Amino acid sequence: MHLLDWLLFALPVVLVLGIAVAAQRYMKSVADFMSGGRLAGPYLLAVASGEMQAGAVVFAAMFELISKSGFTLTWWWMIGTPISIIVTISGFVFYRFRETRALTLAQFFELRYSKRFRLFTGMLGFLAGIMNFGIIPAIGARFMVYFLGLPPEVHLSGFSLPTYVLIMGAFLGITLFMTLTGGFLTVLIVNCVEGMITQIFYLIIIGALLVIFSWPEINAVLIDRPAGQSLINPFDSLSLKDFNIWYIVISIFVGVYGTGAWQNASAYKSAAITPHASVMGNIMGRWRDLGKNAVVTLLAVCALTFLNHPDFASQAAAAHVQSAAIESAQVRGQMEVPIAMSHFLPWGIKGVLCAILLMGIFGGDATHLHSWGTIFVQDILVPLRKKAFDPRRHILALRLSVLGVAIFAFIFGSLFQQTEYVFMWWAVTTAIYVGGAGACIIGGLYWKKGTTIGAWAALLSGSLLSGGGILARQLLGTAFPLNGTEISLVATLVAISIYVLVSLLTCREDFNLDRMLHRGKYAAAAAEDLGELPQKKPTTSRLRLGIGRVIGITENFSTMDKWIAGGLFGWSMLWFVIFAVGTIWNFIAPWPTSVWSGYWHIAGIGIPIFLSLVMAIWFTWGGLRDMRELFRRLRVQKVNVLDNGTVIGDQNLDEAGGKALPEKSNSSPMGCLPRKISPHE
């Protein structure tokens, strides 16, 4: 590492600490700590939430996947393009969830079902979440240890301690400070700033890689594979284990079913200033991902080229020796690409990538810490208390819970021995919760006949099947016929069937969805009473029947919104048509390897690089605009101390006429100056 690299490495640390200190004075309420006051615009949401996918653990997981499957999964992912794009543009689940004004998913479950159901789902979601998160800081720290070329162990007073444990502790400490100062408000601002910087740094890395490696060199490594395990021909990759077409098909189905269910970034679901802004944030996030994916793919294939092409044999020898020294086969596979990058990236560029990874670690870990910490308080402690917290004690409880999650992650990451691919571990841990919760969410938001008994039956069956599958896989190993994604599919199908059947058998009265979603006669009063921006009516029969209505474009879409959403739909469907034509063509007359090589040179490298440039300009402008608007809104935002996640009957506390008022507090949280107070206080 050159001095410039270390300076770039220090940039995220200074950035995070500086913003955390400066932003904390804007945090005035529980809603601010939980959801940034529900004041985020779509660009802010898109840029900030994308930073969760820029951390070292995500890079490690993607490198692991690409090194096993190459470009082939990119082809098969296009199977689900029509479904995924309609889900995104229509705001499936996200729009209605934001209409409920719930701060967490389990709070919505209490609104829709019961307090006991909220409490159980809070516990289950929290346990599954911290297990899922537990490996993330450790993998990120290991990644940085091997990428920076640090010694595997440090000797202190006669004791040997793995270096990654010390690095993990340092990273968690910085992330914890950022999260505790201003809660999600700080996390949102830091992630947006980091995301805008990351977009520019991506372009620098791409330029360097194009100078170091040529496409003929990359292509020579990608085509040198046994029959049935091709990295460029999807139709010659069906022998690939785990990451194949069936992995894609199942993942698409389970992904749609579990929309909004997993809560590792729960605050982003409730942080939008309006339900429509939440939808547009997801749409813009899809656009931004098109540019971001280029650098991950390019880094992975360049690392494979460096490790396997004869032109780099002498330089790669040291990397092979370093990889071979890792005892665990699973860790060795995860760290192979980071080790290679540490050897072929020049100084300066290595520092740029370090900064990207470190900003991603801080952004992703902070979001996880905030999500699981706040869920423990909001969905376990709050329902159990007979009397609501006062604001100061409420925020103190939230902070202590976030601290507890960080301590657990440090201990778990230090002791846990990983035996699964990262994506497989995530699949099985999320399935413990999402396997049953997906049916409860979709049914609860869209079906007035869904019942509490049906929700209990679906959640328990889905979770037990998922947990049982995981246990069976651990006990039987390869003798168990299903992998992680297949286990989640079975659990999902059973949960859906049971939810529908039991609800139909037990429904005695239709649920009032309009009141929960603040629609119809409840809409105007809610908007005026709560000081939120009024919404146009969602899609109605008065809208003209056309492609816009089919894909989910409603009256809430401005002209610019329609161009953005329509452009995403058109771009996505263009690639789906290419996929459909290419698939039929290959069944009739298979393309030779040279054609596939040319296709991926353009579709897998060239076009994504161009999109990276466009997205960097577009989202830097949009992110700055929304950041400015956020601070303007914070200065005039009314503080409502009753907006704290408490549910009375089947209504949020601030909508229930002020019943069960929280204990009085003579000082505002954090000792900050109060903003303008609303009549509710």
Topology:
Blueprint: H1 3-23, H2 30-35, H3 42-50, H4 56-69, H5 72-77, H6 81-90, H7 94-100, H8 105-112, H9 115-134, H10 136-148, E1 153-156, E2 159-162, H11 163-182, H12 184-212, H13 215-222, H14 245-257, H15 266-270, H16 275-308, H17 313-324, H18 329-344, H19 349-384, H20 391-415, H21 422-446, H22 452-476, H23 484-506, H24 513-516, H25 523-530, H26 547-551, H27 559-588, H28 593-636, E3 647-648, E4 651-652
Antiparallel strand pairs: 1-2, 3-4
Helix pairs in contact: 1-11, 1-12, 1-19, 3-12, 3-16, 3-28, 4-10, 4-16, 4-18, 6-27, 7-16, 8-9, 9-19, 9-20, 9-21, 10-11, 10-18, 10-19, 10-20, 11-12, 11-19, 11-20, 12-16, 12-19, 12-28, 13-16, 14-23, 16-18, 16-27, 16-28, 17-18, 19-20, 21-22, 21-23, 22-23
Shape: globular
Q: Report the span from N to C terminus.
A: 55 Å
Q: CATH class, please?
A: Mainly Alpha
Number of strands: 4
Question: Low-confidence stretches at least 5 residues in length (pLDDT < 50)?
Answer: 538-545, 659-681
Overall helicity? 55-70%
- Alpha carbon gyration radius: 25 Å
Mean pLDDT: 81
Number of helices: 28
Q: Give the percentage of residues in beta strands.
A: under 5%
The multimeric state of the shown protein is single chain
Number of domains: 1
CATH topology assignment:
Sodium/glucose cotransporter
- What's the architecture in CATH terms? Up-down Bundle
The CATH superfamily turns out to be Sodium/glucose cotransporter
Q: Structural class, please?
A: mainly alpha
Strand order, biggest sheet? 1-2
- Largest sheet, strands/sense/barrel: 2 strands, antiparallel
Main location: membrane
GO molecular function, one term: symporter activity
Keywords: Cell membrane, Ion transport, Membrane, Sodium, Sodium transport, Symport, Transmembrane, Transmembrane helix, Transport
Region (Disordered): 653-681
